[in-house]
């Protein structure tokens, strides 16, 4: 009833990343299938998902256990292993995938260096093949590569019962909301989920996940310093006028700093991570122009 990819890669800054992308004709698949650790690996448990696999599997990965041995250990101790499906990836080597003998057709998977792909009740083996090709042909941050694979699986037929939910989970040390990425990782502080997006019930969940990832980048990525525009001259005049039209830096308050007015608006709109004193992110400028009333 589910297809997923588990993989390791890097984030947009080149830091190690581990993640899972999954879709299913099942309500809120992201609440059951994926688990990831920022330094040890990731896994997906599905087809009669055993939620105990998540903490147990991550603990084994943290101890240095190889992906194939994690799969062997978890399934050997599970009396319902014939109903399960599991994918695991660690910091090095091939990923590992497991499909129990009683999983409903079509069911199976494939694994390679740093990834594992698996699915059950699929339109056919072409779903897994398409995901593998899309992943291997992609480049860049892990989140985008995982989503490319998931999109390819969906376009190849995905879950043969239909579509309902999807999720994307990526762990990177000290890359979660409010974390300082310059601080060395000292253990799970709850600030390692670089991407944690879920579409729980939607007619086109993978497409919706695509939209959410783009929004995630807009709201939570930090601005590229090289792209920032100086708030001087005509641009400063334009930004002040746009803010005034939205009720910030209103006429009659010339003493109010432009940075303060911009920060007030950006805080309301959740763009505060993209702020820089005396400059403006072009993406924030685009949003400001789109939000302001006609002049």
TrEMBL record:
Residues 220-286 form the Putative peptidoglycan binding domain. Pfam families: DUF1028 (PF06267), PG_binding_2 (PF08823). It comes from the Bacteria. This is Putative peptidoglycan binding domain-containing protein. The lineage of its organism: Bacteria, Bacillati, Actinomycetota, Actinomycetes, Micromonosporales.
């Amino acid at each position: 009833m589910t297809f997923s990819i588990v993989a390791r890669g890097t984030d947009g800054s080149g830091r190690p990343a581990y993640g899972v992308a999954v879709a299913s004709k099942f309500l809120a698949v992201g609440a059951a299938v994926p688990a990831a650790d920022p330094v040890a690996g990731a896994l997906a448990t599905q087809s009669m998902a055993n939620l105990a696999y998540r903490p147990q599997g991550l603990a084994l990965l943290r101890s240095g256990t190889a992906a194939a041995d994690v799969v062997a250990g978890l399934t050997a101790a599970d009396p319902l292993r014939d109903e399960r499906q599991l994918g695991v990836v660690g910091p090095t080597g091939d990923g590992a995938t497991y499909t129990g003998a009683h999983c409903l057709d079509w069911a199976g998977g494939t694994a390679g260096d740093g990834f594992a792909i698996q699915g059950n009740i699929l339109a056919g083996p072409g779903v897994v093949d398409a995901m593998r090709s899309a992943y291997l042909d992609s480049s860049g941050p892990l989140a985008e590569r995982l989503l490319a694979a998931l999109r390819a699986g969906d376009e190849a037929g995905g879950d043969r019962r239909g579509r309902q939910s999807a999720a994307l989970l990526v762990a990177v040390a000290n890359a979660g909301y409010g974390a300082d990425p310059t601080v060395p990782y000292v253990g799970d502080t709850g600030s390692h989920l670089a991407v944690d997006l879920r579409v729980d019930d939607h007619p086109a969940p993978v497409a919706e996940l695509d939209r959410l990832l783009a929004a995630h980048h807009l709201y939570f990525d930090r601005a590229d310093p090289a792209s920032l525009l100086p708030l001087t001259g005509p641009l400063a005049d334009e930004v002040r006028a746009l803010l005034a039209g939205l009720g910030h830096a209103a006429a009659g308050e010339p003493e109010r700093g432009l940075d303060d007015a911009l920060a007030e608006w950006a805080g309301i709109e959740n763009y505060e991570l993209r702020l820089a004193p005396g400059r403006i992110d072009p993406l924030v400028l685009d949003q400001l122009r789109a939000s302001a009333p006609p002049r």
